[in-house]
Amino acid sequence: MKERETEINPLPADQEDSRQLTDLVFLLFGLLGFLLFLDSLEGLAYSRWLTGLISAVWCLGLWYAWNGRKRGFFVLSALAAAAALTLAVLEGERLMEQLTSIASSLLGRIAIPAEAELAVLVLAMAWAWILCALELAVRSHLLLYLLTTGVLLAAPITGNRAGLPCVSVLALFQVSFWSVRGVGVRKGVRKRTADRTALFAAALWGVILLAGICLASGFEDSLYQAVYETEGFVTRTLRQLSGQADEPSADGRVSRGNLYRTGTEQLEVEVSSLPEQTLYLKGFTGGTYIGDEWIRSGDDELFDRVAEILEWEQWAYMISGMYYNMYYTLNSHMPDPPEPNTVVIRHSSGEYDQLYAPYYSQSQRSWSYEAEGGRVTGYSCRYFEGQDMNIQWDQVELYLEREKYWYQMIQEAYGEAAREAYTQVPADILPRLTQLCRENPLEDLDEITAFILHTLAARTTYTLTPGYAPLNGDVVENFLFETGRGYCVHYASAAALMYRLYGIPARYAAGYVIAPDDFRQQDDGSWLASVTDEAAHAWVEIFLEDYGWTPVEVTPASGERQTEVYPGFDAAVLENWSGTGNGGTEAAQPSGETAEETGRADDSRTDENTGARAGWDGEQTVITLGCLSWLVWTLLVLMEERRNRRLAELETMDCPGLYDRLAQVMGFGRKLDGWDGSQGEMAKRLTLTVPAVSPKDADRAMEIFARAAYGKHLPEAGDMRFVRDIYRQAAGAVCRECGPGRRWMFRYLYVFGK
What we know:
Low-confidence stretches: 1-16, 183-190, 581-620
Structural class: alpha+beta
Mean pLDDT: 77
Oligomer: single chain
Largest sheet: 6 strands, antiparallel
Distance between the termini: 34 Å
Radius of gyration: 39 Å
Number of helices: 22
């Protein structure tokens, strides 16, 4: 019985080399993603290039050892473990300090750059070993999938500068190895099929990513606008469905994200006479800043401190009532006092858990109720506008002489207690802000205020959609020193903290602001304003003698320079600051807290203080080049994969197919011009093309081809080896005569041979 060659090599040597090289590339992508993540952490001082080079060489060595002699991999692993143990003994304290610095950076708590060369190198090399051990030795991707997913999820939390490159590279690593393992472990699926699946999946991911970048480049503003509008629509809808949009609220949370308003009415405010100044209705006072949130101020402890200072412990219960009414009472008893205004506040939701009050008002509220049922329908009080406050202690009416003496003592003691309580700043979470104020020493209140306004205007842009701040850093520091984009809660928080750093008692306040032109006169002569959540606002308040707590507006107004900040402020000081050439006092994109938001704020600012878009162009270029490089590499690997498969097919091809392929090779080399189609003529052309093939061998080859095509029996194994050898010699001769371009086509496009 004649022997037939049927043996198939499922994974030829060339294909095995391609698979191993593909594994190496994927491993390096996983290592690069981890290095990019480490590079994104703020405040770490180490050599990026040295760490990357050493860890890449280490990864290459592990890969080479595994694919050479697997024992070498375990030897290297043992040596690495011994080196790590030795390092822990000799440099354990230093290593632990650096690892602590990395953890602090991850949590956003590094104030100054910390040296971390050794720890970063150890982590990078450990990560490389984990990659190689799990992917090559254990062949389990699940743990790596979880680890890299954790890194990907940490990207928005840490707000890393290399966010898109890091996420892209790790995502490619995920797609590639998950495809290899997910397909390769299935029964009956060859490894090369799994490799091709991984390559195609990675190529598809690269195409999608590159297309996304190109789309974002050409339609960036439209895409951002669409995202903001969609997110805003969802947020507003959820608030309306849940009923939150109807409820007036003011709290101490300093938002890390965007602000979307519904335009829902929350208050109805009625005044007896039209205000001449903006009406601030305060519902929340923040006393302690804990990072991202202000804790509500409780004055009970402050009044206890006042009683202690005055040694009035037995009358401590009287101090709060006297203080809250003090400025209204004194001002109403000045010679020719102004007429106070009466304000009536009604909550649209009918809930009165949180109340609002204007500045310089009576502490007592008068409540109104329904005639039937006794349900609360609103509350009222009397107040003065800031411009009408004119307390002159030497002109207090005589019958208030005793109260005047008490009021003076309370004001002085309260001011002292306020300086103790409301000048505290958590410097550990605000290192850059603390350093900024320390580098600009000031004492005069107007100078301090002008510097704060100047700093905010020069460094920031007002917008209701600033994006999302990373969770591992302070939101105020991110606003001032990173993105430079925010709205009232960010401006008010930053200003309150800066006042405190200069020793000025300051608090964060939130509630509603109502401009005079928001009021409409009613038939009875009163003035009514419908207050929606668009009037919700936050501001800073400072303690001023003869005024008490006074609002200070630091959020940019729509297109106007701020000149009236608080009573008695000297606008000329602000003008002097604006002429210093350090950025001026006008915000780059002011829009007003109560003005309609017209979309995304101007993103054209690219100075070092805005940060939000400063690195986008460079990052975009890096990602584009990276995607192009990845696609080119993937294309080359896929072509090599196809070439190996076609070469493997040649080893199993039958005689008729091999003869057709031989004719194609000869035709590609222009050796069959004028050929009459006969096998005798083919033998002559073959002898001329390959001098090493004798006419006898050529005739024998043609005879074997003829018997296979027209005979009843299959060629023997020896005959098949003979004609394959003839084919290889012909293919080699034709390939050597081709130029570089045609040779590439010969090898990769048509795959006639090696």
